[in-house]
Write a structure and sequence with these properties.
Elements lengths: L27 H10 L4 H19 L2 E2 L3 H16 L11 E5 L26 H8 L3 E6 L33 H9 L4 E6 L5 H7 L2 E4 L15 E6 L2 H11 L33 E4 L11 H16 L3 E4 L6 H20 L3 H4 L4 H8 L6 H22 L4 E5 L28 H5 L4 E8 L5 E7 L5 H14 L12
Helix pairs in contact: 2-3, 5-6, 7-14, 9-11, 9-12
Length: 487
């Protein structure tokens, strides 16, 4: 595939660059067409995105290392390549943000916590390297909570991030700033990470799209069990364009998959909804652990299932397969890991970590060897249970979370460090089973908060999950206008 061309589905280029008020909302295909036709420059688009960020950030607080001059320098270089007819690929000149924990050469990586020494990174992490090679314009990094261990935007280093749909609510986490940035219109593409729901939870609570890829599909450094990097965008199509760059190989990821010839944009081509016919889709409404699903969330998911059924899919209720013991075991193992990590910090630096995280991690101080083994074993049991439960279906749909976005100031829905993960029962099993899973908006609460639908596919079927998500986007109920923070 010629990376300098777009798909047949690309929309026409904007007719005039004077429409700068909307440039920050343009998707990847529209930007490609405009750059190619010469009716827009990456410089104009980046300026529009920076203006949007300048006006919204005092309320949203989603960014870190926002450096307009550096972004404009990258945009001018991209402008020169497009004028010469030699773009680096379809993402050349497209604005992106990267989560704080994705290393970028020469920049400190605080990991969301004031306890981290701010040492410049020696190299780009694999996702950052792929996007730099593709010619994207890094407009900012985005915020996250301490060590990525919260599903909120609460951080001892970054200002408190908020949800564009309701500034009193959290954007979720740990990819907090990335999801808030996507919903607020900080350009089309944002990169986050996920080890138990950190892409899907904030995407669901902010009403945007994300794909947690199959483990190893997007090389990452350092790799670890369940950890993935993936795109956050307003549409599945934009996420597909980002996956085309992100999925290129990198030897630093010892868990990465072999390179695969996947037509990522083709997965979101028109007519995807026709492929729903005859699919056997499991409907999971009970995680089997954690907090119960709230009524408005259940209603939105049931409505989404009905729409899929009307489009020709066969919807079958699923029994829960997770147990509270599995969730608690994973929680205890992560507590122990974090406790050991913080034990290596000088006392004055550990004291800077959020007290909630300190209390959570230090509760593992007396864990015995057998207890640690039993806790770690729950990851394997979760993997086995998830694979078995999904084997009978082509795809699975479920809530992303059992509740809508909660108060911004809270570290977790329970606000209890002894019960911090009661909301990840739908998301975490698919990290452990290595299956691709997306979040796509499927409705709103009566208060106007988005509700995320999780779509899960078989391991390695990332393109299939994108295809089903794009199909659902085509048949779902009309979406509300994106939040306007500027009133």
């Amino acid at each position: 595939m010629d990376l300098s061309t777009t798909t047949d589905a690309a929309p026409p280029a904007p007719q005039a660059s004077a429409e700068s008020g909307a440039l920050h909302t343009l998707g990847v295909a529209a930007l490609q067409a405009a750059y190619r036709a010469g009716v827009l420059s990456p410089v104009e688009v980046v300026r529009a995105v920076l203006d949007r960020m300048d006006r919204c950030e005092p309320q949203l607080q989603a960014t870190y290392l926002l450096r307009p001059e550096a972004a404009l320098a990258q945009a001018r270089a991209s402008e020169g390549r497009w004028r010469a007819g030699a773009p680096l690929g379809p993402l050349d000149g497209v604005p992106v943000t990267l989560k704080d924990n994705i290393a970028t050469r020469g920049d400190p990586m605080p990991l969301g916590t004031a306890a981290t020494a701010l040492v410049p990174a020696a190299d780009d992490a694999p996702p950052a390297a792929r996007l730099r090679e593709a010619g994207t314009v890094l407009v900012a990094k985005t915020t996250m909570p301490d060590f990525g261990m919260l599903s909120s935007g609460l951080s001892s280093f970054h200002p408190l991030a908020r949800n564009p749909w309701d500034l009193s609510k959290t954007p979720g986490g740990s990819s907090a700033g990335a999801a808030a940035a996507a919903a607020a219109g900080y350009g089309p593409l944002h990169l986050g990470t996920d080890i138990g729901g950190s892409l899907r939870l904030p995407a669901g609570w902010c009403g945007v799209f994300t794909l947690k890829p199959s483990l190893g599909r997007v090389p990452i450094d350092p790799p670890t069990t369940g950890r993935c990097a993936g795109p956050i965008a307003r549409t599945a199509e934009d996420a597909a364009w980002m996956m085309q760059a992100l999925s290129r190989p990198d030897t630093r990821d010892t868990m990465s998959l072999p390179p695969a010839d996947i037509d990522w944009p083709g997965a979101c081509a028109p007519g995807a909804e026709e492929r729903l016919r005859g699919l056997r889709i499991g409907l999971l409404l009970d995680a089997g652990c954690g907090l119960p699903v709230e009524t408005e969330v259940r209603e939105a998911i049931e409505r989404a299932a009905l729409l899929l059924e009307r489009a020709g899919a066969v919807i079958e209720p699923m029994a829960p397969f997770m147990t509270q013991g599995m969730l608690d075991g994973m929680d205890r193992w992560w507590r122990l890991r974090s406790h050991l990590d913080m034990a290596g910090l000088p006392a004055e630096r550990k004291a800077r970590v959020l007290p909630y995280i300190q209390a959570w991690a230090d509760s593992a101080a007396g864990m015995t060897g057998p207890e640690a083994y039993q806790a770690q074993h729950q990851f394997h049991l979760t993997r086995v249970a998830a694979v078995r439960a999904c084997a009978a279906y082509d795809y699975i749909v479920s809530p992303v979370a059992p509740m809508p976005a909660f108060a911004a100031e809270l570290p977790s829905p329970t606000d209890d460090p002894m019960h911090p993960l009661e909301h990840i029962g739908f998301t975490v099993p698919f990290n452990m089973s290595e299956q691709p899973a997306a979040s796509v908006n499927c409705g709103y609460t009566r208060a106007g908060l988005p509700v995320g639908l999780q779509i899960v596919g078989p391991r390695f079927d990332d393109a299939g999950v994108l295809r089903i998500a794009r199909a659902f986007e085509a048949i779902r109920d009309p979406q509300r206008a994106w939040p306007d923070l500027l009133g």
